[in-house]
């Protein structure tokens, strides 16, 4: 019987300490894609799975309807931990968690990728004249799952946790949380915001244009309309 607390046994699983995560946001504007590239420098046991536990801030949201459609044509699977209000602005929203199951990258040995569509929420107008608001997305937790015989579950440096086996199978499976190297501490996006100092001018202009249009419509109706008494 193998003693899983033996240092020699634990050192045989150095591949668990060889993970690197590279993340970037692609596209512009309010609608982005958060792409994560997970790479293991050592050989990964066959059948291994990778799961990213994302904790997303209140300044962004994920559209569950878009995910349902996208997952039909993509290997990346996402399980949301709570309901998402698509219409709420940032100051009336709260952060949420998403479980993102990575897919194998066929062009890279020991590599996994995820693509998560994220959308920026509307923010309060800034009173200091700032034109943009920075929203940072913190680093995810990295979980790995494989055959239990290949995972050193009892080694002291490893943290064992439970999470749904897949996005479709919500039964709990045993996962190992991995410490990894990351190219950047966090990724962020700049979101345009209004200027609080221009509220009076904007409201006055909007009201003036609205009244002018109403007067023009009433004038056209009065001039060209046919009225019967």
From TrEMBL:
What keywords sit in the KW lines?
Answer: Endoplasmic reticulum, Glycoprotein, GPI-anchor biosynthesis, Membrane, Transmembrane, Transmembrane helix
Where in this chain does the entry annotate a coiled-coil region?
none
InterPro entries named among the record's database cross-references: PIG-X/PBN1 (IPR013233), PIGX (IPR040039)
Note the topology in the membrane. Single-pass membrane protein
Subcellular compartments: Endoplasmic reticulum membrane
- Which pathway is it part of? Glycolipid biosynthesis; glycosylphosphatidylinositol-anchor biosynthesis
Q: Where are the transmembrane segments?
A: 199-222
Protein's UniProt keywords contain Methyltransferase: no
Q: Which GO terms describe its biological process?
A: GPI anchor biosynthetic process
Q: Which GO terms describe its cellular component?
A: endoplasmic reticulum membrane
Q: What does this protein do?
A: Stabilizing subunit of the glycosylphosphatidylinositol-mannosyltransferase I complex which catalyzes the transfer of the first mannose, via an alpha-1,4 bond from a dolichol-phosphate-mannose (Dol-P-Man) to the glucosaminyl acyl phosphatidylinositol (GlcN-(acyl)PI) intermediate to generate alpha-D-Man-(1->4)-alpha-D-GlcN-(1->6)-(1-radyl,2-acyl-sn-glycero-3-phospho)-2-acyl-inositol and participates in the sixth step of the glycosylphosphatidylinositol-anchor biosynthesis. Probably acts by stabilizing the mannosyltransferase PIGM.
| PANTHER family given in the database record | PHOSPHATIDYLINOSITOL-GLYCAN BIOSYNTHESIS CLASS X PROTEIN
Please report which protein family the annotation says this sequence is part of: Belongs to the PIGX family.
Q: What is this protein called?
A: Phosphatidylinositol-glycan biosynthesis class X protein
